[in-house]
Amino acid sequence: MTNTVRMHQGPVDSSKVPRFAGPATFARLPRLDQVPRADVAVVGVPFDTGVSYRPGARFGPAAVREASRLLRPYHPGLDVSPFERVQVADAGDIAANPFDIGEAIEAIEAGADAIDARLVTIGGDHTIALPLLRSVARRHGPVALVHFDAHLDTWDTYFGAEYTHGTPFRRAAEEGLLDTEALSHVGIRGSLYGKKDLEEDRRLGFGIVTAADVLRRGLDEVTDLLRQRIGDRPVYISVDIDVLDPAHAPGTGTPEAGGLTSRELLEILRALAGCRLVGADVVEVAPAYDHAEITSIAASHVAYDLVSLLALNAEERG
Ligand SMILES: [Mn+2]
């Protein structure tokens, strides 16, 4: 091997400092304030005031960072070394008011706007997708969406509240942040309040790939469908970790039986390589219900795949 000049500052070298030592930035990457600029930033949003059932996702970012110590710098599935290809950094956490959802949403939007990089955001509950989509749509216009979740998250209100973790995509559609020709839910399953939940969701423009579709139709057919729907539009990926079966992600607020395996989720994400990904999030990791870091490890691997997808089409950034 010849000596080459490092173009980007990568993670701490695990042959010199073991992976379980030192501060837990995402994948042991430099902090954003330690690099001149970044192409991709991982940012946390420790906020869970929007949940309808079990709280605790405010501790998600810290748990996912801790679990991300395991990550290594080369991704064989996508044949990319994301941290060499582009500058990736950890932008820390956006401080969001835990007592005032409106103020929190404003702070998250402003916090995302302030980071000059493509973002992979670690939640936090799913409420945070709305301000993140506002920020993305300001830069790119209305975006295609691939939303991985057990739940639709297009309900109208809970207890009269418009801004909750069950409503972000209804609000995003109403605000014109989404390209209504290119909206997909993946992994939907479980009980609903009524059939009209599905009818209203369809009226917003969403197509649904259920968890059963992933099993019965198979990964190739499902990913072909998703890619066709996205086309060459800018696309945002939102991953609620409860898309995974509780066996693969017990540490979450609203678990549903019959979900995807982590292998299926990662394979679908990898099949979206080449799409014009402009931002992504991984939300709803609630470590208090986790066991042996199962959920936070899955979420950290999902975040690594999202960073890798962004790194792959970095040349598009303009
Ligand atoms: Mn959700």
TrEMBL record:
Mn(2+) 1 binds at D149, H151, D153, D240, D242. Gene3D superfamilies: Ureohydrolase domain. Mn(2+) 2 binds at H126. InterPro entries: Agmatinase-rel, Ureohydrolase, Ureohydrolase_dom_sf, Ureohydrolase_Mn_BS. It comes from the Bacteria. Binds 2 manganese ions per subunit. Its cofactor is Mn(2+). It holds the Pfam family Arginase. GO terms for molecular function: agmatinase activity; metal ion binding. GO terms for biological process: putrescine biosynthetic process from arginine, via agmatine. Keywords: Hydrolase, Manganese, Metal-binding. PANTHER family: ARGINASE/AGMATINASE (PTHR11358), GUANIDINO ACID HYDROLASE, MITOCHONDRIAL (PTHR11358:SF26). Belongs to the arginase family. Agmatinase subfamily. NCBIfam families: agmatinase (TIGR01230), PRK02190.1 (NF002564). This is Agmatinase. The lineage of its organism: Bacteria, Bacillati, Actinomycetota, Actinomycetes, Streptosporangiales.
